[in-house]
């Protein structure tokens, strides 16, 4: 039992450290030209979500653009689906925008926070065509974690748990 507690404490310490690294490294990465960011990101998204794309989960994006705005990183990506593939663009005529800080998107992706809670608490916001934005929010919520590569899902959950502890004030946030 004691070894399990120590393991959990070590795991939380490492997760907090990695989140702190993310807080400092992601703003630097966000400065990389988006054309260079897109090179690995777009194929990676299509590979990770290949099954969901085949199953029509992303059909709501067919020919429509959503903007994902990471406020704290001053970084936005526009995303659509064309010919069965996700496409990213720095700028596009988006119909709706979902905005929040990177940790809120991590909480959403890792399912550590209910999407509705994040929106009702205004930690995430939808602007523009609210109905379309809600469809995309529901799409994100409907993604099956079992379809993700297991190690990716484990990493998301692990980091998301650390972010959730920080959010709930159960651990001290690292000083800048």
Automatic annotation (TrEMBL):
InterPro entries recorded for this chain? SCP2_sterol-bd_dom, SCP2_sterol-bd_dom_sf, UbiT
| Highest taxon above the source species | Bacteria
Q: Does the keyword Cell membrane apply?
A: no
Q: Which UniProt keywords apply?
A: Ubiquinone biosynthesis
The record's listing under Pfam families reads: SCP2 (PF02036)
* Coiled-coil annotated spans: none
Which terms under GO biological process does the entry name?
ubiquinone biosynthetic process
Which part of the chain is the SCP2 domain?
53-141
Q: What pathway does the annotation place this protein in? A: Cofactor biosynthesis; ubiquinone biosynthesis
Is Isomerase a UniProt keyword of this protein? no
Per the similarity annotation, which family is this?
A: Belongs to the UbiT family.
Q: What does this protein do?
A: Required for O(2)-independent ubiquinone (coenzyme Q) biosynthesis. Likely functions as an accessory factor.
What is the official name of this protein in its record?
Ubiquinone biosynthesis accessory factor UbiT
User: Lineage of the native species?
Assistant: Bacteria, Pseudomonadati, Pseudomonadota, Gammaproteobacteria, Pseudomonadales
């Amino acid at each position: 039992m004691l070894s399990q507690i120590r393991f959990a404490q070590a795991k939380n310490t490492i997760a907090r450290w990695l989140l702190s690294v993310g807080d400092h490294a992601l703003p630097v990465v966000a400065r990389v030209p988006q054309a260079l960011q897109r090179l690995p990101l777009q194929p990676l998204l299509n590979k990770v979500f290949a099954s969901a794309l085949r199953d029509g989960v992303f059909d709501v994006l067919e020919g429509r653009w959503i903007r994902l705005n990471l406020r704290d990183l001053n970084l936005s990506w526009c995303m659509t689906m064309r010919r069965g593939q996700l496409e990213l663009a720095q700028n596009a005529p988006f119909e709706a925008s979902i905005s929040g800080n990177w940790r809120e998107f991590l909480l959403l992706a890792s399912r550590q926070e209910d999407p509705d809670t994040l929106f009702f608490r205004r930690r995430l916001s939808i602007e523009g065509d609210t109905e379309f934005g809600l469809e995309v929010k529901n799409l994100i919520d409907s993604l099956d974690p079992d379809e993700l590569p297991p190690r990716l899902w484990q990493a998301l959950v692990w980091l998301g748990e650390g972010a959730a502890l920080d959010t709930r004030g159960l651990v001290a946030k690292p000083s800048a």
